[in-house]
Predict the structure.
Amino acid sequence: MGIFYKLRVKLIAVISLYVIFPNQSVLAYFVSPLKTKNGMVVSANPLASDAGLEILSKGGNAVDAAVATTFAISVVEPFSAGIGGGGFLLLHQAQTKEIRALDFRERAPLKATKNMYLDANGKVRPNASVDGHLAAATPGTVAGLYEVHRRYGKLSWQEVIKPAITLAKDGFILSPVVTYRSLQAFNSRKKTILSNPAAREIFTRNGEFYQPGEKLVQRDLARTLTLVAQNPENFYTGSIARAIADDMAKNGGLITLQDLKTYKPIWRNPVCGNFVQVNSSTANSSPTKICSMPPPSSGGVHLLQILNIISDINFKSLGWHNPDALHLMVEAMKIAYADRSQYLGDPDFVKVPVAQLISPEYAKLRRQQITMDRAKASSEVKPGDLTPLTPFPLREGEKFNSSVLKSYESTETSHLNVIDAQRNAVSLTFTVNLGFGAGVVAAGTGIVLNNEMDDFAIAPGVPNAFGLVGNEANAIAPRKTPLSSMTPTIVTENGRLRMVVGAPGGSTIITQVLQVILNVLQYNMNVGTAVSAPRIHHQWLPDQLRVDKFALDAMTLAELRRRGHNIKETEPWGNINAILVTPDNTLEGAADPRGEGAARGF
Ligand code: GLY
C-alpha cells in the first residue's frame, strides 16, 4: 500500500469527520473494534473499563468485572450514573444459557403522592421533579450490585469495589471529553449545585466546574465506598442510610430510613423475541433471539415491538438508509412511543400488556396502519386498543409543549458490557437521571442523588425532561418504580451468545439500540462501524424526525420531506457501546466515538 494511498485514506477519513461538540475540537469518526479472545469490558469511560479489565485479569468473571466497572463509573462520571441512582442489568449465564434481568431502579419514597409536583391549582410546579431533594427516589445501585455479585460473583465483594475506592481517594485527571460532558451537565444544573453546600464543595472551585487536566478527588465518596465494601447494609440500614435520611429531612426530601431499609432489587424475566427479516437468507437457518429489559423499563418492549413492525422489509436488500427503510422505521417508532405513553408503567402496580405489545400479530395490525408514501402526523398516531386502562388523556386545552425539552443528550446515564472467557455476559445500564441527578449531594457521603422522580408522569400528558409524555400507568405512587427507557440487551443465535449492547440517552436509548442491532444483524457492519454510524430518532411527541447532521444525503432528506416528515438535523447524540461474539468466538467490542468510552480486553 503506497504512502499516497494511505494519505488519501486519512484525508477522506478527516473530511468525513463531523464535529460532535460545536465549540470543541473533539471529533467523531468510525472506530475500529478491539478484538480479543478471552474477556472484554466496554464502558463509557476508559478508567472504568480499566477497572473491569483489572478484575477480569485477576480471574474475576463477567459479574465481578461488571460490578467493578459500575462502581468505577460512579466515581469517574458522577454526573451520569452512580450509587445515588439505580439501573437494570441483563445477565447471560454460559453454563445454563439462561438470561436473567435484574431491576435495581429507584423506587418512589413511601411519602410520595400522585400530585406531589402540582400546585394548589393543579399546575406543575416548575422543576420540582428535577431539582433538589424532593426529586430523588430511593436509590438501588448498591443493592442491585450486591445482589448480582452475591449470587454470581467469584472474587470477593471487597476486591471488586477496590478500584473505585482508589479512584475516589487518589482522584483522577479530568479528560477533555469528561470535562466537557460534566460541564454540559453542570451548566444546566448550576443554580441547584451551587446552592447545595456538599455538591458545591466537591464539584466546583470558586463556583465553577474544573478544567480539563485537573484532578477530581472525592474523599467523602471514597469513605462511603469503603463502608459499602465492608458491608453493603451500611447503605441501607447503617451510617450511610442515616446520613441520607438526615439530609433528606433537613432539605425537604422524602426518603426515610424506612425507604432505605425496605429497598429490594427484583429479578425479572427479560422480554425476548425472534429477530425476523423477510427474505433474509439467515432468518430461519439461524434463529436470532433478542432479549432485553422488561417493565418497569419500556426499552425491551418497544425495541421488540419496532423490530416486529419493520420485519416485513428486508433492510439489507434495500441498502443502507434507503428512504423506504427509514420511513418504515420512523412510522414504527411513532407507534411504539404512542403505546408507551398509554400502557407502560411499573408492572407491580399496573397491568402492562407486554405479551400483546411484543406479539407479531399486534405488530401486523399496527403495520397495516402505516402508509408507505406518507408520514402520519403524530396527532394521527394513537395508542393501540389493548387491555383497557383508565384513560388519562391530555386535559382539554392542554397541548404538548416541546419547549420544556431540556435535553436529549447523553450527559446522563451510563452503559457497560462485559463478556468473560466462559462467555458469561452482563449488559448493564444505570443512571442518576439527568446530568448530576437532582443536583444535590447527601452531606458527608459524596453521593450524587438522582432525580428519577421526573421519569414518572407527574401529570397526564405533561412531558418529562426527555419530552416523554405519560399516563395513569406511570403515575406516582409510594414504592412505585418510575418508567424507564433503559435498554440493556443480549442477542443470542441458536442459544449462543452473539451480542451485548446498550446506551444512555433518555428517550433516544431505544432507537439507538434498535439501529445498532440492525447495523450488525442486517447490514453486517463490524461493531465499530455499527456504533459509529449516524442515526435517526422519532419519539412520537414532539412530531419531529431527529437526524444526525450529515446522516442522510440531500436526495434522501428531500424524499423523506416529500413524504411529510418534519426533519430536524442536529448534533450527534447518544453514547452506545457493544460487544459481538464472532462465529470464530472472537470478541469484538467498541464504544461510540460520540463519547470517550473504551473497550478493554485480553
Ligand atoms: N432516566 C432515564 C431513563 O431511565 O430512561
About this structure: Residues 108 and 188 are 24 Å apart (CA to CA). Residues 1-28, 388-409 have pLDDT under 50 and may be disordered.
